[in-house]
Amino acid sequence: MSAFDGLPPLRDVIATHDLRAKKSLGQNFLLDLNLTAKIARQAGNLTACDVLEIGPGPGGLTRGLLAEGARHVLAVEKDSRAMAALAEIAAHYPGRLDVLNADALEIDPTAHLTPPIRICANLPYNVGTELLTRWLTPPDWPPFWTSLTLMFQREVAQRIVAKPKTKAYGRLAILSQWRTEAKIVMDLPPEAFTPPPKVHSSVIHLTALPEARYPARAETLLRITATAFNQRRKMVRSSMKSLHPEIEDLMGEAGIKPTSRAEELTLEQFCALARTLDAAR
Ligand code: SAM
Q1: Residue 273 falls inside a structural domain
Q2: Which residue range(s) make up the domain with 230?
Q3: What is the residue-level pLDDT of the chain in tens, covering all 281 positions?
Q4: Does residue 173 share a domain with residue 41?
Q5: Shared domain check, 254 and 154
Q6: What is the pTM of this model?
Q7: I want to staple 123 with a disulfide (CB 3.0 to 4.6 A). Which of 75, 128, 146, 232 is the partner?
Q8: Ligand 1 pocket check: which of 20, 23, 25, 193 to mutate, most ligand atoms within 8 Å of Cβ?
Q9: Whether the predicted interface score ipTM is above 0.95
């Protein structure tokens, strides 16, 4: 029996191609095609867009994206065992799916994509935050993509949308909210995946703003947020001492009380400090 898109059900695909999930690759598969189509819909209208998918695995979300009308999908998968299953999907949707057997951290996908580009992925947990950080911090803005629709562990999704003075607030919140509008659009229980992970998951949708909310250099913001949140309980005058010999004066110029703790500083204050530091160099 075939699924609604005319291809075999994902359980059969996994059995046929012996795609037993590997923990080392962060493999927790979505097998319900209604659910993957619903996630694809969270990415917005795909008919006039190219979509970059990282980690298609057996292709559940890939099939959702294609069934929802994506103009073209580029799927980047590290696990060569999945190539035969993905080739069957490509043959079913001629000219609309390209697959790269590569590590997403090692390649530049832009050469294979035509704007407008959306990114949609059930990310491997081990590389998810690294990829997100890279997508959020190119030197120039706007980036090559218009939106990101990403599955994360719920705790990571909460860190992306967190507000100051909360436990979840940190580097990911600053970098995400600086240049995008971010919201959690779906929650999924562990049972939605095979094998089920230990924790709940959430889909987060980030839309690239035309301009950052406050000016700053990405490289500087990366450095100061890493320094500040590395010792989040300390006062910023001590946690950020290594950034500049006159850090307390620079904080004053940026409107920051040196006795504050990192989690009390707003996005606007972090950006002001980044600019003051750059001007002082
Ligand atoms: N998209 C599929 C789904 O929703 O069922 C699979 C999602 S699974 C959570 C993550 C996928 O990312 C796996 O297929 C894994 O092999 C792949 N992966 C892990 N590390 C990767 C990397 N560095 N580059 C590309 N793919 C990777």
Answers
A1: yes
A2: 218-280
A3: 788 899 999 999 999 999 999 999 999 999 999 999 999 999 999 999 999 999 999 999 999 999 999 999 999 999 999 999 999 999 999 999 999 999 999 999 999 999 999 999 999 888 999 999 999 999 999 999 999 999 999 999 999 999 999 999 999 999 999 999 999 999 999 999 999 999 999 999 999 999 999 999 999 999 999 999 999 889 999 999 999 999 999 999 999 999 999 999 999 999 999 999 999 98
A4: yes
A5: no
A6: 0.97
A7: 128
A8: 25
A9: yes
Å from CA of 14 to ligand 1 middle: 14
- CA pair distance 5, 75, nearest whole angstrom: 18
Is 17 a member of any domain? yes
Task: Report if residue 26 sits inside a domain.
Answer: yes
